[in-house]
Every structure is written in C-alpha cells, then in structure tokens.
Amino acid sequence: MRSSESAEGQSPADRSVLRLDEPSVVSLIRNARPHWPDMLDLCGALLRQRRASDARILADELSARHPEAAEPFMLRAAIAHDEGEWTLGIAMLQRAFDTSPWHPEATGLLARRWWQDGRVPELVALARRAVAENPAKHVPLIGYIGFDASIEMAEFELAEHFLRVLDGKARQLERRNHLAREARNWAASEAPHEPAGRDGRLRRRIDALVAEGDPDAIRPLLRRSLMEPKPGARDLIAIRTAAGRLRMTLTERWALRQMRDHHPGYPGQIMILTDFLSQLGAHREASRLYDDLSQASAQQADMLLRSATYMASAGGMALDRLEEAAAALEPKLADPGVASLARRFIAQSHARPVRRDVSIGSVSALPAPALAAGDRRPRVAICMSGQLRGFRNAWPQTRKALAGEDVTVFVSTWADAGSGLGQRLSVDRRLPVGLMPRLAGEHMDSALFARSFPGLSTLLTGRRSYEREELQAYFGTPHVEIEDEEDFNRRHEHRTGLYWLNKLNQAKMFYMIHQAHEQMRRFEEAEGRRFDVVIRLRCDNGISELAREDLLYAASEPVCLVPSSTTKLHDRSAMMSRQVSSSYASVYPNLNRHGDARYFEGATGQFAEYLIGGHLIDQGVAVGLFKGTKTTSLLSDQPSLQEFGEILTAEIQGREDLDTFESAVVVATIETMAATRSIEAMSRLWQAVPAGATTARARLDRSFAAKVMASGAPAGG
User: Fold this and answer.
1) Which residues are CB-neighbours of 208 under 8 A, at least 6 positions away?
2) With contact defined as beta carbons under 8 Å apart, do 47 and 17 qualify?
3) pTM for the whole thing?
4) What angle do CA 491, 492, 498 make, to 5 degrees?
5) Measured in Å, how far apart are the chain's first and last C-alpha atoms?
6) If phi over 0 gives left and psi between -120 and 50 gives alpha, with beta otherwise, what is residue 168?
7) pLDDT tens across 515-574, in order?
8) Angle of CA points 647, 652, 653, to nearest 5°
9) pLDDT tens-place string over residues 74-109
10) What is the C-alpha separation between 148 and 586, in angstroms, rounded?
11) Is the dihedral of CA 122, 125, 127, 133 positive or negative?
12) Whole-angstrom distance, CA of residue 378 vs CA of residue 163
C-alpha cells in the first residue's frame, strides 16, 4: 500500500481544518451565530492533533461571546476528557444541560457519561424528569440507559414508560421479559437487614448466595444494598466483585461510584479506582488518588508505587509527584526495586522528553507535527505476530483502514494457527455472534463442551495450518515467516522461569514480536532507510479506523501509543516511533538471556501486559493513548449461528434430560435465534429439547423466546 501526496483518507472535518488559515478561523469563531457543528468538529480536530491548549483558546473565545449557549461547555467537556479529567468533563456536560435543558447532544452525552460513572440515582432522576415533562421528545435522548438505570433502582413503572416510548409498535420482547423477570425477583427478595456499622457481614451473605449459584437471588440483594445509606467499604468491594461475575456492568459501576463518594481514601480500593479511571483515559484524575499514601500498608505499597509509575508513564502524574510517591512508599516496600524502577523512569524521561501538547498558541489550523523530511507521509511498518486465529476477520479491516498509506507488512507466525481458546481454554471468542453474552462465564470452559457436546467441541476447537505462499498472497507481502511451535517448546521446556500458568504462551508471544521486528530490521538494512512508524498487531486484532494524526505524532515523538493503559499495558496492539520499537521488541532477548521475567529491577514476574508495561517503564518509554485510531476486539473464526444450532440440535436429539450446563447452552442458543429472527432453526432446536429436561423447559417457558415461538414472529430488535 503506497501513499499519494493528497489529503485522501482524512475525515471531512480534518480536511476543512487543514485548509483553514487563521483569519478564516477567527471569522467563524466571531460570527454572531456560529455554526456549532463546525465548532465542535474544529475542537475535535485540534484534540486529535494533540493541541489541547489551542482547543482551550477556542472554547474560551466562544464561551465569552456566547455565554447562553451549551456548546462552549461541551467543548470544555471534550477538552477535560482529553486531558484525563473525567469528573471535570462530566461537570461541564452538566453545565451544558443546565444552560440549555434537553439540548440533544448534551443530554445524550451526559446520560452516557453518568452511565459510565455509575451515577444511577442521577440517571433515574433525569429519566423521571423526561417522562414528566415530554416523554415523546425527551425519552429518546436518554435511550435505553434510562431503562437500565430504572431497573437498577426498582423503578419498574418508569422502565415501562421508557419501553413504551422507545419500542413503539415493534415491542422488544426480550427487554419486556427482562423487565418482568427483574420485577418478580425484586418482589421475592428481602432487604439486607444488616446492622449499621457492621461492615463485612453483607459480604458473607453475598458469598453464600454466590456459592449457591442463584443469580436471580443475588441481583436484587446487590441493588438493595447499594440503595442503603452509606454501605461499608468491604461490602462495596464484595458487591462490585459479585456484580462483575454476573456481568451486571451498571451495578458494578454504581458500587465503584459509592466507594468514591463514601470511602475515597480506602487503601484497598485505590488500585480498583485507578484501573477504572485509567480505562476511561482519566490518568490525571487517577493520579490524584495517590495524594495521600500515609495509610498504605506494607502489603499495598509495591502495587501502589507500581501503578503510580504507570500513571506517570501515561502522562497523568508529574515526575516530581512520582518522586514524592517513591519517597513516601519506599520504607514500606517489600521489593525496593520498585522505587528504583520509578526513579529510572524519571531519569530517562528527563533525558528523552515527550511533548504531550503540541499547541501553537492559536487556533489557526496548521497541520499536525510535521516529519523532519518534510510533509511526506510517514513510512509505516506493520509487524503482525502470533497465532493466526481470527486473521481472516481482522486483516481485511486493517487493510481497509490503512488504504492509501505507505505501508510494508511483516508477519511472523506459527505453523499451527491455534484454536482461539486462549490461555484459559475458554470458547467465548469462538461462539457465534450474539451467543456469548447469554452464557455465564463458568459455561465457557472448553472441557464442558468436550464432555457434553463433542460435535460442538470439534467445531469450536478445530485447528489448521497454512503454507507460507498462501499467507504471502493473502497479506500481500513477501515478508512472511512461519516457525514450528513444538520446536520452540522443546528448546525452552527446561527454562522454568519462562513459564506462566504452566505454559510458555507468553514467552512465545514476545518471541514472535521480536521475530517480526527482526524481519523489519533486516529489510531496513537492505533498503538503506528506516521506517518512521511501527505498528504492532496480534493477528486476531485489527485496526478498524486509522487517525493520521496518531501516525504523525508517533513519527515525531519517542512514544508508544496504545488503545488503553491502566496499571498494566495493552499488549494487543501498539503504534510507536521507530526508536521506541526497538525497546518494545527487546523483551524476548532479555527473557532469553536471563531465563526469567525478573530480568530488570522492580519487575513483577508476571507476563504479558504487566511485563511489557514494566519493560517500557524500565526503558524510559512514554505511553500515550490513540486519539482517533480504533482497534477491533480480539477476533476468531466464528461459526455461524445456523451451523452451531444444527449441530446442537442433532446432539440433544434422543436424550432424556439435560444438566445445568447443557440447559444453559440450549436456552442461550434458542434466545439468540429468537433475537436474530432465525425462526426455523429455533423451532427445530426447541422441538429437540428432551421432555425430561425440566430445567431447560421451565427457563424457555419464562423466556421472551416463548412468545416468539408461539406467534411465529421474529423478536423485535
């Protein structure tokens, strides 16, 4: 893929921004009636170019000229979010809504941010106001977020209002079935009845219900507990953990919100809150959790200082504050090397500074940072490595996103393409689209499928291999290397320090990253010139959208850009300068040389995300987040729902009963078929359910799929 010298591949907003000179921008800003979509697009383009200070100039100017408008506050919200200030961004959206109630964009953004932040009472209050004032107009602005929040607080009539407005004539049977089930469970449940001030007793009750395996009894208990005045810190941790296991995302976030409100300095929660905020990109806000570390125990000190260093590497914590944290925690550290690691990062960051903000002091729309060689497009190396599972779904998206760029592809892989089950042998990524969310985590074990459904097991765990010429043609590159995985295992089986969970999988991942990088390095030597940017990808992880601003920034700054960075580093994809890529790819040589993951002072001994993160910190590499580039989830070669259903139907025919796992798979498959309008296949599977399978039949009778089956009509939505 070779580039032209045009601006093709940019969004319309980017092209307009790059054409504007300062007078025309000022003219737009100072218009008595500005076109607000243009202003929002201009602000977004400045943020993608990492010009937050210039975006702030724009917001200040517009706010001064139009104090009655919501849009300047929306600009400030976008800037705050971009700079890692999550709570400030929400406050700005609240100001936008208060300034112009029911502003469509401000209302939708505020509802989504409240959902992400676990602000359930605020969402329910907004939902009530929407229904009271103008349901036909206001309810759609909030959407199903209002429905979900209403169920969380047992406002079932309010949830019904939302369904009536949102569904119209095409009633969504599954949501109505969900609403009826949650109302029944709530009516059958009891309040926690735990004495005030007895933090921890609720945790034991939750643990007992989890052990009994009755999610319908656990859900209302968790929600009732969050509606109690000021739950205890240990109980909130138990609520969050149980909600996570049950995939009750909003309940889990509500528990975190309560922890932040009522127990902000609780040491055991700092790591959890750091992860939560940094997943949202709020590294600067997360770093303030470390302002007072006096209560930290010796057991927590290592983790706290390590995560503070991650916040600093992502630009959220100033280096002098990291030095203060290291000094405060050093006497308590079990591993003094963590303090040394933090100080090495500080020293190398001073020696290799990274510009986080490349503003020019005005909103004139100049291009993003230019390459030293002029305004040519950067030379990009795509280094793909690891098992090929999912590559046929991932690579087409990457190829489309990179169209028009100057790209050379290097692939290093194993002869065995892999099953896609992952380290924990879970089938979740191999299940047909739509089925996985309907199955509990404990039902993803491949061993259960092998025991109960041999045909499905073969379908989900099948493996194959590819020839080099086949892959060269598919990826459109001669740079493909295939190695024997068993040979690697034989060469390294005696090196116990490279094992993780009794396998060499993580060591093999870093080996393949290094091999792809070596291919690229040899190519550079032969060509006599270096690449500007290196993009590292797993074969099952694709790029769905490429922001050229990210490419230019990575080409001009010694930085590693990733989709997310928390208290560990995203290890599926990365975009980095050529200088940084040598550091990124050097994990395996160090592992091989030392024979252990603890090859640098302060290493955790854990692999993958922890090891690559600690390694880059040890090398003094700054981390940044993508501003516009988007990546896919981990993809696999998933069978169709029809093929899965046909095999499942054949396997249960003639059986007398189904156990708990088998019932769960059958019910989840039937519900997925009902939701996707696969009526004939659903009918065949339903009829194959054994008469003696009372658990499965009882669940189906209560399911929305029963109404679909009775009517012969597809489920709405």
Assistant:
1) none
2) no
3) 0.86
4) 165
5) 39
6) left
7) 999 999 999 999 999 999 999 999 999 999 999 999 999 999 999 999 999 988 989 999
8) 100
9) 999 999 999 999 999 999 999 999 999 999 999 999
10) 46
11) negative
12) 50
